[in-house]
Amino acid sequence: MGIVLIWSLIVALIRWITSKRRGAISYDSSDQTALYIRMLGDVRVRSRLGFEPERRGSHPYLYIDFRILHSRPESAGPLSARKVRRLLSFQRYLHSSRFFRGAPPQNPLYILDDDYTGQAKCMLEKVGSWNFDIFLFDRLTNGNSLVSLTFHLFNQYGLIDLFQLDMVKLRRFLVMVQEDYHSQNPYHNAVHAADVTQAMHCYLKEPKLSKSLTSWDILLGLLAAATHDLDHPGVNQPFLIKTNHYLAALYKNTSVLENHHWRSAVGLLRESGLFAHLPVEDRLKMESQLGSLILATDISRQNDYLAQFRTHLDKGDLCLGNAGHRHFILQMALKCADICNPCRPWRLSKQWSEKVTEEFFHQGDIEKKYKLDVSPLCDSQTDTVENIQIGFMTYVAEPLFVEWGRFSDTRLSQTMLGYLGLNKASWRGKLQEQTSSGDDTDPALEETDSEVLPQGSKEL
Ligand SMILES: *[C@@H]1O[C@H](CO)[C@@H](O)[C@H](O)[C@H]1NC(C)=O
Ligand SMILES: [Zn+2]
């Protein structure tokens, strides 16, 4: 997914706008959105130029496995050779263990206390609720939220019967998917994937979709949601490019992460043999459609999708009897599910915001440690969770959910936009508290309109 990229874009835009504002030029918010979108290309260029070529290739960091760096701060201090070896062998264990999973040796759910299992089951009765607490569900399932939730949904939609899926293969596939997410990532881990899958389920149930989608569409939508960030390294694309990561070369600097998530998902599908009984044309069609859904989550392409969506809505020409149009709506639904954190109730939304900020700052710390340019939004000294959120909500989430609300004008859409507004106000409130208690506010910031411009980044 490209969520990390989005955020870097926001800050770049904010910096740009602020520099313009200092030149006494003001913009209304639609201009700002346009500017933000224009920044999408520039950031990539800038981060490339920002990296001095002579350092490349000789940099000690360049060939290190990211997973090693993702030991959490608590396990502090420089990594000893032993720790590195342990981490590496852990990874190797995870990978090799796949080949011995003929029959899942122990279903992790069985080791749970009956009471927790009972409570998790109880939660699944409300799996279609927008207030579903995925964090609680993850605790109740002992960290197996993605497996439990997705399996439950496959069952509930009747996909197991319809596609004659082998339940053992399905469970094994889902366990592999869950394990290929990095639990060390504060944000891009299996709980995020479970959250996106749950949101996708909510959208699939919306009247316009539920009366037109086929079982094939539902199967694809759920699979794409569950796998859309598979094996995410916890750093963004510019980071992979500037550190010469092999994935950047493999995917020619384009949708590097999304291509990797997709190819990883295809690898697991083939390895599990989940659809081995289907005709090869169907399997290939599934793999390619899965790719087109996952690639749609690349946020640097958000503008294209949004423009296309608007055009359809203006013309009123979306016809969900048409397979191509249904696929487009699935892409939009997955995009919404992927960035729906700001539309959840505050107590959930706030936790996501803190997690994503932690992941950004962790990337920034690595960049500082290895004397790379610190990526936008990743500097714990200057960026704040409040600014990051307000920018993200204003320039990324809101435009998307407004269009989605036009397409699917339902109570759920109203609820999501309602929470979005409330959550933004909450972050603004926190910002205000800080500003009124702080004394070193930059006067250049005070004159800016807090309605459209996040404040407080000291390097602005
Ligand atoms: C990817 O970007 C890097 C850094 O700018 C550049 O050196 C490399 O040639 C690019 N690779 C491709 C295939 O465009
Ligand atoms: Zn995602």
UniProtKB/TrEMBL annotation:
GO terms for molecular function: 3',5'-cyclic-AMP phosphodiesterase activity; metal ion binding. It catalyses: 3',5'-cyclic AMP + H2O = AMP + H(+). Zn(2+) 1 binds at H192, H228, D229, D338. Pathway: Purine metabolism; 3',5'-cyclic AMP degradation; AMP from 3',5'-cyclic AMP: step 1/1. Keywords: cAMP, Hydrolase, Metal-binding, Signal. The keyword Nucleotidyltransferase does not apply. Belongs to the cyclic nucleotide phosphodiesterase family. PDE7 subfamily. Residues 439-450 have a biased composition (Acidic residues). Residues 112-434 form the PDEase domain. This is Phosphodiesterase. Zn(2+) 2 binds at D229. Residues 1-19 form the signal peptide. Its cofactor is a divalent metal cation. It comes from the Eukaryota. The active site is at H188. Residues 431-460 are annotated as: Disordered. Binds 2 divalent metal cations per subunit. Site 1 may preferentially bind zinc ions, while site 2 has a preference for magnesium and/or manganese ions. AMP binds at H188, N189, A190, V191, H192, D229, D338, Q389. Its EC number is 3.1.4.-. The keyword Signal applies. GO terms for biological process: signal transduction. It is an enzyme of class 3 (hydrolase). Pfam families: PDEase_I (PF00233).
